[in-house]
């Protein structure tokens, strides 16, 4: 059994004075869980063995000057909402070692063991005392090294979080300085409600309609009590192409006689893979009832969908959840992949700038947002609906440049979530090499996982 020894724990503050005061959040920030997303960056190059932790601390202190909100603390305000006190209280930095080797962790699939490589967050503490960012650098007996990161989701999402990590890495390896990195933009004005506030223009079922439950179930929460497990599944470039080809195989039949300019574009790898995961999950769960309703939800980054577009250096949350049309197990399992992929497209294509603004206005009109928050990365109980069996909640990290996090020891050999606590939660991520491969991380009830894997690789 691998053991981890903590050698030191320190608070890193900005190297120079930073602005103080209250940062108000957009409702895109507000409905995100205030708990922390745990991720790991794994390094096994020879250079990692002699990594200078002090230089990491120094560069971290420097990067926190432009990223000063990350050193603040949250405060509750009316309506179950939060604000950020930019008080330069700092971030936590832990140094640790393990008697294990990197290979003892296998493929670093999300698990309790991998979660221990990320600093634990005491969510029972007053929220005003909890850092927005926590880091743990763990050295292994083989010479490898892991950086574990816990980031508060209210303050950053995947896109803004990885921009911070990669900027820090570029400074740590000496390629950039505080003045030459892409400067973060903290103003949340881009995702604020309209003034005066308008009623929503769409039916935002993501928030107004609970996800389906198992037919005949008198207590949906029982599904949330089932034993679950996580796994990582690799898709090669060739397998991805097979899925895309399968999803598009009957596109010609659907578009015969349609003018060229009106021809729909082929299904993307995103649509094909989520559609495939949806089919496999329905088959693996084997409820035995073809009329069982099921849905999938996924967050969509709206930076490029807003008018005008949100700048790429925006440092807040810019992803908004969308819900695919409700289907039934029988249709998902018997129809071709194009059916499920089409439902994914139908759900995600509705996320226009106008739809996103309407959703922001809907959230702003809620007296209390506590009921909307859910967390798939901590044990904190939330009021929001359970999105596990018979449903899925899938996040695409395919556009996030995790593997640019080179601190001077080369690219990480793996980066991904350290823990998934919720049945039905999944991530689609880039593989560590530039070979076109992807990695799917997913958590399902243990009794369903073997069949999910079997169906996942069947015929590809």
UniProtKB/TrEMBL annotation:
InterPro entries per record: CAT-like_dom_sf, Plant_Fungal_Acyltransferase
Domain of life of the organism encoding this protein: Eukaryota
GO-annotated molecular function: acyltransferase activity, transferring groups other than amino-acyl groups
Family from the record: Belongs to the plant acyltransferase family.
Protein name from the UniProt record: Spermidine hydroxycinnamoyl transferase-like
Lineage: Eukaryota, Viridiplantae, Streptophyta, Embryophyta, Tracheophyta
GN (gene name): LOC111432520
């Amino acid at each position: 059994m691998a053991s981890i020894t903590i050698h030191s724990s320190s608070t890193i503050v900005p190297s120079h004075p930073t602005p103080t005061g209250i940062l108000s959040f957009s409702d895109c920030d507000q409905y995100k869980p205030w708990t922390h997303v745990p991720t790991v960056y794994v390094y096994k190059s020879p250079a990692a063995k002699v990594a200078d932790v002090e230089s990491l601390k120094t560069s971290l202190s420097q990067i926190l000057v432009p990223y000063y909100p990350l050193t603040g603390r949250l405060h509750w305000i009316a309506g179950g909402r939060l604000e950020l006190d930019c008080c330069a209280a700092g971030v936590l930095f832990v140094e640790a070692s393990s008697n294990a080797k990197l290979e003892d962790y296998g493929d670093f699939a999300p698990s309790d063991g991998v979660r221990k490589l990320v600093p634990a967050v005491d969510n029972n503490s007053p929220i005003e005392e909890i850092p927005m960012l926590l880091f743990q650098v763990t050295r292994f007996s083989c010479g490898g090294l892991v950086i574990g990161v816990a980031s508060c989701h209210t303050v950053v999402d995947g896109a803004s979080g990885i921009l911070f990590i990669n900027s820090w890495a570029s400074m740590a390896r000496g390629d950039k300085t505080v003045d030459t990195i892409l400067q973060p933009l903290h103003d949340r004005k881009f995702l604020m409600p309209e003034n005066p506030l308008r009623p929503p223009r769409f039916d935002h079922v993501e928030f107004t309609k609970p996800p389906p439950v198992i037919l005949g179930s008198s207590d949906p929460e029982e599904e949330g009590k089932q034993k679950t497990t996580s796994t990582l599944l690799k898709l090669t470039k060739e397998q991805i192409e097979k899925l895309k080809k399968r999803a598009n195989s009957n596109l010609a039949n659907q578009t015969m006689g349609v003018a060229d300019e009106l021809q729909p574009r082929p299904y993307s790898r995103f649509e094909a893979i989520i559609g495939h995961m949806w089919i496999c999950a329905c088959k693996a769960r084997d409820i035995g009832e073809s009329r069982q309703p099921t849905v999938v939800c996924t967050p969509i980054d709206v930076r490029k969908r807003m008018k005008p577009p949100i700048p790429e250096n925006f440092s807040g949350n810019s992803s908004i959840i969308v819900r695919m049309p409700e289907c039934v197990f029988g249709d998902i399992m018997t129809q071709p992949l194009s059916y499920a992929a089409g439902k994914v497209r139908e759900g995600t294509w509705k996320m226009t700038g106008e739809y996103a603004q309407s959703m922001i206005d809907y959230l702003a009109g809620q007296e209390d947002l506590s009921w909307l928050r859910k967390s798939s990365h901590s044990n904190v109980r939330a009021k929001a609906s359970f999105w596990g069996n018979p449903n899925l909640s899938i996040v695409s990290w395919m556009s996030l440049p995790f593997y640019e996090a080179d601190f001077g020891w080369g690219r990480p050999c793996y980066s991904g979530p350290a823990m998934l606590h919720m049945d039905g939660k999944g991530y689609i991520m880039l593989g560590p090499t530039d070979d076109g491969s992807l990695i799917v991380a997913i958590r399902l009830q243990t009794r369903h996982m073997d069949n999910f894997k079997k169906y996942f690789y069947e015929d590809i």
